[in-house]
Amino acid sequence: MDVELTLPTAPVTLAPGVPTRVLAQVRNPYAQPLTLRAYLARGRASGWATVDPPTLQLGPGETAEIGVILQTPPTQPPSTALVPFTLHVEDADTGEPAGFATALLTVVMPVPVAGELVTRADGRFAYDLRLANKTRAAVPLRITAALEPARGRVEVRPEAVLLEPGVWVTVAVRAKPKPPLSGKPRRVDVVVKVQDAYDAERVPYLTEVATGTRKPRVSPRLATVTAIVLLLGATAAIAYTRDMLPFVGRSPGKAPATTPAAATVRRPYVLLEVFPHRGPDGGKAQAEASRAKFAAAGMPVRLVDSLSSDVLADEGAGFWVLLQDGFASTADAQAYCNQWRPLAPKCAVTA
User: Fold this and answer.
1) Of these four, 73, 137, 240, 345, which has the most CB atoms within 10 Å of its CB?
2) β-pairing, 269-276 with 319-324?
3) Beta-carbon neighbour count of residue 38 at 10 Å?
4) Residues 6+ apart with CB under 8 A from 341
5) Residue 348 contacts residue 209 (beta carbons within 8 Å)
6) What is the dihedral of CA 239, 244, 246, 250, to 10 degrees?
7) Do 220 and 184 touch, CB atoms closer than 8 A?
8) Which range, of 19-23, 120-124, 177-181, 249-253, averages the lowest pLDDT?
9) 231-243, pLDDT tens digit by residue?
10) Is the peptide bond prior to 158 cis by the omega test (within 30 degrees of 0)?
């Protein structure tokens, strides 16, 4: 006997001591009525779970919902690890197995802060970060901001806030990204993080990203004209030198440098982390370490050099990009971010 039993595909997020109800759907595909008993398989999560209702009756072709109420102990420490739990159903009269479904859960601390980043009308790259405390206790916060790519500066005022219960505050964020020298306007992301003021290692309570564009200092037309003038001048200088020094031997020219094959990035994709080309190894070791962390958790992710991709190309030294692409739609990309948000809080969809 096999009934149709399904659980959510996205990991269930639990807060320590807070009950969370997960709904499972069960359908009777047979022509006769069934009486089913539901229970959770033995395991780490079974001690946190209650099944409601534990028994149910289904007519032919009928569908019903089973609630799995999960509540960890208040002292349960948070963790990014994913814990599986399996729901079984069996024939209540014979005890014959009728089906099962498995889902994942993770335990995280509840977020005491809500907020949004709003663009101001009085200037470019000027924002107001509005924060609210909806808990019953004051929350000490530290607010930081950074540019991606990291060229320019960004200021936050105030940088620290003691947010009282039920109170709203506004934090001013002002960025001054450096413009590219030439080429097309470049995308600039302003990444704002709200963290525990006394625990810098803790995952940020809130991460907000604002996106803008920066025009080049030199327009494409002027850059083209300048390049043509320089090329004509260099050609004339070479010709003049050859005429004046006819007996000077030519030094063998170097083979033209080959460029690496372009890395294909398919839209839509999700952006996870960015590492500038810095240090003796160009920042690759740090990027590889982050990629290995995601891979160890079973998260599919790619490491791409921005200088080898037209989609990610930027002025300057470039950067290493942790991303995942090839999604069928923007909704699929957003579902990926929602699934892995506990491990990759900066996950953002780019269409």
Assistant:
1) 345
2) antiparallel
3) 24
4) 347
5) yes
6) -60
7) yes
8) 249-253
9) 656 665 665 555 5
10) yes
Domain 113-214 has CATH 2.60.40.2310: yes
| Dist CA 188 CA 321 (whole Å) | 14
Asked if the model's pLDDT at residue 309 lies above 80, the reply is: no
Q: What is the pLDDT of residue 317?
A: 56
Side chain identity at residue 51, one-letter code: V
Query: Residues for the chain: how many in total?
Result: 351
Look at residue 57 in the predicted model and tell me its pLDDT: 94
Q: Please give the DSSP secondary-structure letter assigned to residue 48.
A: G
Name the residue ranges covered by the structural domains of the chain. 4-107, 113-214, 269-350
Assigned token pair, 309: 């991709």
- Mean pLDDT computed over every residue of the chain: 83
CATH number attached to the domain at 4-107: 2.60.40.2310
Helix residue ranges per DSSP H, the chain: 220-244, 284-296, 330-340
Contact at 8 Å (CB) between 37 and 54?
yes
Identical topology for domains 4-107 and 113-214: yes
Backbone angles phi, psi at 236, to 5 degrees: -65, -40
pLDDT reported for residue 245: 52
Q: What is the pTM of this model?
A: 0.39
How far apart CA 38 and CA 90 sit, in angstroms, is: 7
Residue 328 has pLDDT above 80, yes or no: yes
Phi, psi of 24 (to 5 degrees): -115, 145
Q: What is the mean pLDDT of residues 273-283?
A: 85
Residue 9 falls in which region: left (phi positive, over 0), alpha (psi -120 to 50) or beta: alpha
On the question of pLDDT at 271 being above 70, the answer is: yes
- The pair of three-digit structure tokens given for residue 71, joined into one six-digit string: 């509540």
